[in-house]
Amino acid sequence: MTHPTEPAASKRRTFLKRAAVAAAVPATATLLGSGLPGTAFADGSPVLPDYAPIPSASVGPGLNEDGYFVGQIKGNLYWVTDSYYQAMFLTTQDGVVLVDAPPTIGHNLLRAIDKVTQANGMPGKVTHLVYSHSHADHIGAASLFGKDVVRIGHSETRRLLRIDADPNRPAPTETFDNRYVLKVGGERLELAYHGPNHSPDNIFIYAPDYATLMVVDVLYPGWVPFKSLAVSQDIPAWIKAHDVAMDYPWTTLVGGHLGRLGVRADGQIQKEYIADLETSTRKAMTSLDPTPYFQKYGPSGNSWAIFKTYLDAVAEEAARPVVAKYTGTLAAADVYTVDNAFTMLESLRIDAGILGPFSIRP
Predict the structure, then answer these.
(1) pTM to 2 decimals?
(2) Domains of the chain: which residue ranges?
(3) Helix ranges (DSSP H) in 108-263
């Protein structure tokens, strides 16, 4: 395996290592200054907002000097994280099966695999690469593993990657529509497609011998979901995917993001967060008076101003009790809950037909 040796690559590794180490440490100090994102000091430096400290239970293991952590899940199954993203790999007698190749981990995937296989005496060559889905932030380092690796993904993943034509994300060489059992060197992974959720092609990867499920961008152990309910393309299906995930008999979850593995309690608390968010959003939609927004912007004909200010106000009202409940329990509850409430609001309007003041005219 080869690693970058150019000065530019070395500088970038140093930056990423420092950033990852900082991310792995709970916030205990108050940032200097206060204000909204985008504002700046007189010298042009940004004024960044303050957020609640990260609960210690949300923080993963410390990173090594190269800026990553590799750990054993059980037996021949391992995981890698840089505190932002995660990948999973199986060492076998015939080579390594890797699931996802996040670019922020990048060449550290090679280092992690080298470290593990040299220790356990297994072959270090990656022979199979499984794509959880097509998004570049999770498989954007797929090109590092050469042309000979067997690339496996959903048929929709291949279609999407052929459209994207990204040289860092070669299309799968083997695809499936519903289920695929991968057997390599005495090890087994069960791949399943349960319909669209976060993306049209997102799959579930289950290692039955190790009671481990990898599903990406659905459950975020210890944290609230990423902005706008994980930027998911089908919100009702994404919410249902929580139940699909919990129906698997797993004890360990690889969620694809952040610094630690998940346990079943993580899935349950995220389901509660989503349920509370939906309840609060429905309540805000019925309780917030839209009159002031129509009165202010209606006479000028600024329809978008009516929509923006009213919907933003609903999202903020919906988020308030959810932030209060989960701050200190789920990391970044105060960072993304307003955005998540706005996405929930739009899904209720568009998918559920709860249109509020924009419903059928009486």
Answers:
(1) 0.89
(2) 56-166+173-262, 273-358
(3) 108-120, 136-139, 155-164, 227-231, 235-247
